Amino acid sequence: MKELKIDVWSDVICPFCYLGKMKLEQAISKLDLHDRITIEWRSFQLDPDFPKNASAPATEHLVKRKGISLEQIQTSQQRLVEQGKNYGIDFQFEKAINFNTLDVHRLLHWSKAFKKQHELKTALFKAHFTEGADLSKNDNLLKIIESVGLESVNGNQVLNSVSYAQEVQRDITLAQQIGISGVPFFIFNQKTAISGAQADQVFEEMLMKMDD
Q1: Is pTM beyond 0.90 here?
Q2: In sequence order, what are the residues at sequence separation of 6 or more whose Cβ sits closer than 8 angstroms to the Cβ of residue 9?
Q3: How far is CA 53 from CA 41, 67, 86, 98, in A?
Q4: 4-46+101-210: CATH class
Q5: Which of 13, 28, 79, 131 has the smallest number of CB atoms closer than 10 Å to its CB?
């Protein structure tokens, strides 16, 4: 049986990325493809100009950045809350704290060597959207690193360096070359793509096509 590869561009502060991740995982589980699929989480920054080592309430920041009303954003968030429940996501948007995600993406690249990228990505999403953790603070990132079985000492060395910044930039540059303007974005076996947190059936059909 052939191996199947999925590349996923996403950002930790993107609720649709979290939803898309869980939809993909559900489809993989339904089709019993766990043992044959490799997922690589690639970097994409939705808000690269947000100051490093700073944070702000995510909803308030979104109102300022998007220039739309709080009511419009809250209506959209409520729809996501309801959708998330179907996939085991407990969105707590009132707790979410915006931050510059460069360091998080560097840690995700670092974690690949230990085959912990998937676990770290999941933990970061939960920390941001459910627990309201301030991920601009290294102490909070180190606790998450430890929670998935990674060495916090090594993680701290990464955080206090520029390691893996080039890998992050390569992912972002590749996204630009491909024409990716929004996330999540999924590429299956380097051939076909899905943009956004599509309906469950779309993911299932794409996985079945991969397996042909």
Answers
A1: yes
A2: 42, 43, 44, 171, 175, 180, 183, 184, 185
A3: 23, 24, 34, 11
A4: alpha beta
A5: 79
Q: Residue ranges per domain, the chain?
A: 4-46+101-210
Strand 37-43 with 4-10, pairing:
parallel
Rounded distance, CA 1 to CA 129, Å? 37
* Beta-bridge partners for 41: 8
pLDDT (0 to 100) of residue 173: 98
Is there a contact between 108 and 117 (Cβ–Cβ < 8 Å)?
yes
C-beta of residue 105 within 8 angstroms of C-beta of residue 99:
no
* Secondary structure of residue 6 in the 3-state scheme: strand
CA distance 8 to 194: 10
User: DSSP string covering the chain, please?
Assistant: ---EEEEEEE-TT-HHHHHHHHHHHHHHHHTT-GGGEEEEEEE--S-TTSPTT--EEHHHHHHHHH---HHHHHHHHHHHHHHHHTTT----TTT-EE---HHHHHHHHHHGGGT-HHHHHHHHHHHHHTS---TTSHHHHHHHHHHTT--HHHHHHHHTS-TTHHHHHHHHHHHHHHT--SS-EEEETTTEEEESS--HHHHHHHHHHHT-
Averaged pLDDT in 10-residue chunks for the chain of 212 residues? 87 98 96 92 97 95 92 96 97 98 98 96 98 98 98 97 98 96 95 94 91 66
